[in-house]
Amino acid sequence: MEERLWHQHYDYNVLTSYRFPRIPLQALLDIPCNAYPDKPAIHYYGSETTFWELREMAVRLANAFIELGIKKGDRVGLHLPNIPQYLISYYATLYVGAIVVNFNPLYTPEELTALVKQTGISTFITFDMVVPNVKALTAEVVIPRVIATSVFDFMDGLDISTPETLQMDTHWHHFSQLLDSSQNLKRPRIETSIEDAAMIQFTGGTTGIPKGALLTHANMVAAAHSCFLWGSASMQYSSPRDRMVMCALPFFHVYANIVCLNWGMLNCATMILVPRFEIDPFMDLLAGFEKNIFLPAVPTMINAIVNHPKAAEIDLPKKLDMLNSGGGPIPVEVIDQVGDLGVAYSEGWGMSETTSLGIANPVMGLKKPGSIGIPFPGMDVKLVDLDNGTKEVPQGEPGELLIKGPLVMKEYWENPEKTAETLKDGWLHTGDIAKMDEEGYFYIVDRKKDMIIAGGYNVYPRDIDEVLYQHPKVLDAVSVGIPHEYRGETVKAFVVLQPGETASAEEIIDFCKTKLAIYKVPKAVEFRDDLPKSAVGKILRTILRDEEAAK
């Protein structure tokens, strides 16, 4: 690849391009198994599973899958939180050449039905707390195999569930019984090409049916190694024997799948599983571990962690070796708080379509507040005009972000029309509006669909959100465009106040007037106890906008 402006800012040990290993994704598990076979791969509420034990169970389950008739190319749905069974199922699926399809456990039966039909799931692995939803699903669509487990089954000292306690249908399979039925420790001899599909990852959407981004083994391995190499400037100073990764982000989200699960494999890191992020129990859990913890998170999680009363008590800088933020823009005020910790930190940008990664701030090098950073090695980026998407915009001007390289998906699953619309000559049209500065750092201005056109002015909600977070009484905030008879659209802010604080709409508006052009200032403010968020904690602006449109 030709020299790019941003290459000069790579960390000293990061090359401008890499030749990524041409291996299937499941081969990553061999790295810690060979280096530290007896090190815990999983820490789950005090129970531990070594890397060697994890691989043995995955192989046994893979052979059980074959006995059930699961074959190469089949889609296996993982409808699981962060529990050991997810990891065992993940690698078992890959060992038989099948395709992992992630499902959010919070999906309704209607959402599950639509996505199962879309992907033609042959096997569906679920757990005790959502069995009623799965029964409603199977009443609507035939799934040849359903496998059920319990979140308590891999906890030491607790009884293993039974088909009766799980209230399984008679034709379902019990996870632990299925695993025990196979003692074959020979890995299936199924040839896997790096261009084969490894995962179908649904795009984050709140309207319509999400699209399934088809990620190949090459995509996933390149993403895992990109994450590994990008963070190596910091992580090289700790021993792999001591490394841990806090898995509070759900594995069913592509961000966690790469930066927690697959990064964990390459770093021989113990994965501390957190099935559900709740700030008080999380801080208690964090307090129980020593340093060398890598914490991938989203902005709302980071905001909650650094502002928690226990943050000073447990001495966060001594716990964390590195902190990573993704899944959405992090307010500059929160970045400043993270900087005060003195922890290695990187904020990045990515999509399901780019295997979670794409652009990030260097871990040890120059970071610019408000910037998503610079493209990963091997990735190329350009900004094009918003009208036609064909002409590159001048430096400093906003344009749609286009990206290409080894992280870009192969296609949308069985959706050639949308694939052709989004992928053109290898360039992925992201729908994000960005600017590039004179040093090659990129700044997300907003999503094309989120841009507010008020009285003929283009208003980017992120500009407003940044100001709202600067108000000392504000804990969470987001702005949206709402219909307006004269201006077309106007700005409304949704605000969550800090505990114990009170404020008026006028106070918030007056504050914004001191920091924003008048056409950007919110004309309405609504206070809420909380804001709608995705499973990974990303504020769902679309839901609020749709609520307003429905009024």
Characterize the structure shown.
The protein is an alpha/beta fold and 551 residues long. It folds into 3 domains: 248 residues, Rossmann fold (3-Layer(aba) Sandwich), CATH 3.40.50; 144 residues, Rossmann fold (3-Layer(aba) Sandwich), CATH 3.40.50; 100 residues, 2-Layer Sandwich (GMP Synthetase, Chain A, domain 3), CATH 3.30.300. Helices cover 30% and strands 24% of the residues. Strands 2-1-11-10-12-13-14-15-16 form a 9-stranded mixed β-sheet. The protein has an 8-stranded mixed β-sheet with strand order 7-6-5-3-4-8-9-19. Strands 17, 18, 20, 21 and 22 form a 5-stranded antiparallel β-sheet that branches. A hairpin with a 5-residue loop joins strand 21 and strand 22. Helix 2 packs across helix 3 and helix 7 crosses helix 8. The N and C termini lie far apart (51 Å).
